[in-house]
Structures
1.
Amino acid sequence: MSDVREGVESAVDYVLRAVSDPGILRFLELIRRHDIKYGIDTYPHSVRTGVSVVLLGGDPDAVKSALVHDVGKIMLPRPELLKKPGDFTAEEKREVGRHTELGYLLLTGTGNGLPSVVAETARDHHTVVDQYRDQTESPRKRGGRKTRRREKNTIELLVGACERYDALRNARAYRGEQDADTVLHAMRSMNQSRVWLSLADSLYRLDNTARDVMISRGLYDPENLANPWGLEGTPKRL
Ligand SMILES: [Fe+2]
Ligand SMILES: [Fe+2]
C-alpha cells in the first residue's frame, strides 16, 4: 500500500473514532437524523471534511470543528431547500446561509465542553474565504508605513477550504459531481491568498487517493457509514 493511501486510511480511522467524542456525538447524531429525515447528505460531507482536515495537518480541535461545521442546517425552517434542484432565489440563499449563525448559536449553548473555535468555525466557514482573499505576504504601504499583512492559517480557513472542496467536487441537488481540475480552478479563482492556494493544491494532489479510499470506506453513502452510536440496525432514509 502506498504511503498516501495508508495516510488516508489512518485519517479515516481517526475521524471515525473522533465522531464518538462526547462533545461531538450528540450534534453528529442530530445531523445524521436530520439527513435521514430529509434525504440530505450533511453527515457524510462533514465526515469527509474531517478526513481532509486530518490530511492537511489539522489538530483535534480542527477535526471537531469540521465535523459539526454545518450543524446549523438542522435548524433551518425549510430543510427541503437543501435539496432544491435549481438555483436559489435571493431570499432562499439568505435563508440557507443562516445555517452559519444558527450553528454558532447551537454550539455556544452551555455545557457542551467544546472549545470555542468549534462554534466560531460553524459561524465563519463561508465568510472566511472572503476574509483572507486579498491578503498576501508582500509588504504594502498602509498609512504611510510599510506593514506586512499576514495571512493566518486558522482552523476556520482550513475547514473552510476542505468543506468547499468537498462541496464543489461532489454532486449537489442542482448539479452532478465535478472533476478535480474543474474544482481546483474554481478554488483558485475564489481566493488568491497564498495559504488558500496551498490548501487547494494539497486537496487537489490528494484527490485521487483520498476519494478512492473514502468511497471504499463508505463515506459517500450515509447508509454505509460506520454506526458509531450503537443504534439498532442501519437507519434508512425516510
Ligand atoms: Fe456551510
Ligand atoms: Fe459544509
2.
Amino acid sequence: MNSCGFSKNRLLELHFNEGSGRDRQTARDHVAHCSQCRDYMATLDQTNQSLQAWPREEPAPDSWEKVLFQLPALEEERDESKPVLSVFPVVLIGLSALACLGFIFLLDNVLDFIPLWQSLKSSVVGDVLGSYGLTALLFFLVGTLITLSMSPVIILEGDRQDLFVPNKQ
Ligand SMILES: [Zn+2]
C-alpha cells in the first residue's frame, strides 16, 4: 500500500505534463527521493505504453455484407411468430364463448330452484326470451356489472403501464 501522502493529482499532472511548472518541479523533486511515488509513476508509464502498444483494429472488409446477410433471417423469424400470436387469441375467444354457454346452461338449471325465477320465466319477458334467453340476459347483465366494477382497476393498470413504457426504452 502507498502510505505516502503526496497528492496523486500532482503525480498525474507530472505524468501528462499538465499543471503549472512549479507544481511539476515540486512533484519531480518529491519523486526523486520517494520510492513509493516512483513506483506509481512507473505504473503510469507502463499503462501508457500498454495502451499505445494496443494495435488499432480495422473492421473486416466484408463486415457490411455480413450484417446485411443477417437481416433477412431476422425478418423471417418475426414473420413466423405472427401466426402463433394471431391464432392464440381466436382460440381463447372460442373457448371462453363455449365456457359462457356452458355456464348459462348450468345457471339455468340452478335458477329453476328459485321461486322468483319461475315467476320471471312465466312473465312476458320470459315468454319472449325463453328460459335460456332469460338466463343469458342475467349472465351478461352480471358480467357487465363485474366489468364496470373492475374498470377503475383496468384504467389504473393501463396508466401504470404507460408510465413504465419510457423506462423500458
Ligand atoms: Zn511519495
